[in-house]
Amino acid sequence: MHPTLLHSVAPPHPAETVHDVDLALEYPRVRDATAILRAPLTAEDCAIQSMPDASPVKWHLAHTSWFFETFVLEARLPGYRTFHPQFRVLFNSYYNAVGDKHPRPERGLLSRPSLDEVFAYRRHVDLGMQALIESGALRDTAVRALVELGLHHEQQHQELILTDVKHMLSRNPLAPAYHRRASLHPTRARSSPDWLGFAGGMTRIGHRGEAFCFDNELPRHRVFLEPFELAASLVTAGEYAEFIEDGGYLRPELWLSEGWETARAARWSSPLYWERTDGARAIFKLSGFDALDTAEPVCHVSYYEADAYARWAGARLPTEAEWEHAVGEKLPAGNFLESGALHPTADTAVEDGLRQCFGDAWEWTSSAYAPYPGYRPAAGAIGEYNGKFMCNQYVLRGGSCATPRSHIRASYRNFFPAAARWQFSGIRLARDA
Ligand SMILES: [Fe+2]
């Protein structure tokens, strides 16, 4: 593993010097958090794959265990017994250096192993990890780095479990709810965004400090920004509804060519999960169908829709450098997975400044997902984690209501293709000053 996977060359960030995660405690906490997400689901729920981009919950539960088995236990625990030799292929996501993979669109065809067998696999891996931890292997920096990567990988899949379950349940005419939650009454609606000005100039982006980060957040480097403005909070569902009412989906001048073609072919006329019932707008959430709260942030929009909305609003999307510069040294706080809402909530903050920058909805940026200057992926199979996806995708920032709080940071770079809508992806506007 390349050392830059975990450490930047910059001196420790003052706010992060306290970071010294006890992995022996963090391992069971993160693994249990994944199992808890399964609790509201039936075994049948866990087996379904609703589209090629999504995976069955059962597959997520097995694949996250496969990661520890393949990259930690088989390599680092002497005498470790592989749970099932064919799982190496079944639950390999995309690591070509590891070997063959079961085709992604066919993950929903795996009625076997059963859910019980997958949980037995998880227990087997957990016992192996317990033995590894008790052996003192975490004193080895390389082992520690792999285990920490495995835990952050597992947290990424926790969010994917929720977004994939939401898509799966939305395709059922019974519209089952994943969890119960009282409907909120519409909260305050804003008529226009507050704008915050930034002088720009030379700045730095990328991870700093000793805490964990993915290799794609490194190295920290200089960027020059022209003066710009950012909207203080996320675009609301009510504001997005105005775009729709103004013919937003029918006006080609607002759209990128590829976005227009994609929207026409897929017959998009609103964000994913929006419906019209008896003339009123409704929205499917993990808590079931509900009236649309116009004050909540719009989400489940593609890059194309975010871009078209911004053009309609006389603005643009921020670059990832503008976003990270504006967020500065803010520590993650907001509506994350732990809040239990599992849906973006209205901006009710009274303080001035940048709001909703963490949690609620990932924010599309206009930045192509590309390597930072001097980027080097880790050596070996683990180097396939991020680097090989740096093509035809856009960067999203800030995390969502399905992101575990301890998983996100200002330098975090999520990435999805421009047409992706099933993630909790929303919009913050920017404009030139
Ligand atoms: Fe994965």
Question: Any overview of this molecule?
Answer:
With 433 residues, the protein is α+β, with helices and mostly antiparallel strands. 30% of the residues lie in helices and 12% in strands. It is built from ten helices and twelve strands. The chain has helices at residues 23-38, 43-47, 57-76, 87-90, 115-134, 141-170, 237-245, 257-266, 303-312, 320-327, and strands at 195-198, 201-205, 221-225, 228-231, 274-277, 280-285, 288-291, 362-368, 394-397, 414-416, 425-426, 430-432. A hairpin with a 2-residue loop joins β5 and β6. The longest helix is centred in the middle third of the chain and has 30 residues, at 141-170. It is globular. The model is unreliable at 1-20 (pLDDT under 50). Fe (ii) ion (FE2) binds at residues 63, 93, 153, 157. Fe (ii) ion is lined by residues 63, 93, 153, 157.
Q: Count every helix, treating DSSP H or I runs of 4 or more residues as helices.
A: 10
Helix and strand element order: HHHHHHEEEEHHEEEHHEEEEE
- Gross morphology is globular
N-to-C span? 43 Å
Catalogue the unreliable spans.
1-20
Q: Name the average pLDDT.
A: 92
Number of strands: 12
Residues in helices, as a percent range: 25-40%
Strand content: 5-15%
How would you classify the helix and strand content by structural class? alpha+beta
Biggest pleated sheet: 4 strands, mixed
> What is the topology, as strand order, of the major beta sheet?
10-9-8-11
Catalogue the ligands.
fe (ii) ion
Any idea what the radius of gyration is?
22 Å
